Amino acid sequence: MNQQYPSLSAQNIVAFLQTLFDNCNDAYLGEAVTVSQHMLQGATLAQRGGMPDEVIVGALLHDIGHMVSPLGTFAIDDTWDRHHENSGARLLAGYFPQVVVDCVRHHVAAKRFLCATQPDYFDRLSQASVHSLQLQGGPMTADEVAEFERLPNLETILQVRYLDEAGKCPAMNTPGFSHFAPQVQRLVDAHLQAGY
Ligand SMILES: [Fe+2]
């Protein structure tokens, strides 16, 4: 049972997520898009690229923690980290395949990993993302990189991270959450039926 939302179930979590998307108009981390638009853009790019459901849904939900964090949404002048990735993973754990939960839980660490392992990755970050990187601990140390590389879902986590960077375009139109809802429900059902 989810401690924060005890009435959540595999039957109603997709409707709950839809409600979160419908009601969140918060700006995304100082960007010119809302949190909802940001995640819908990532999911749309993944779908256009023919990526698997896990990547599409991982991108769609990676920042859901901003919508449910008891610590509130990130602001550009924050001086501390609100750990939205943990809030998001807590919401989805138990309803979604581990790979999706891992994409949510580790998408912040993935930025720190890529900044440490790819010399040009830092240049891809927006100003707000550079600011949050500092609050999140900066690029990983060599020991942290070695540990992160052992994650079983590393490749999918990194794919979602690239989509996170890409989904910050004010001019990009996307379908709404309902377009993706059947895919989201399929993954919930797969987890329920097969423990996937
Ligand atoms: Fe994001």
From TrEMBL:
CDD domains (UniProt xref): HDc (cd00077)
Pfam families linked: HD
InterPro entries: HD/PDEase_dom (IPR003607), HD_domain (IPR006674), HDIG_dom (IPR006675), OP_Dioxygenase (IPR052567)
Protein name: Phosphodiesterase
Domain spans labelled HD: 37-108
Organism (species): Marinobacterium aestuarii
Cleaved signal peptide residues: none
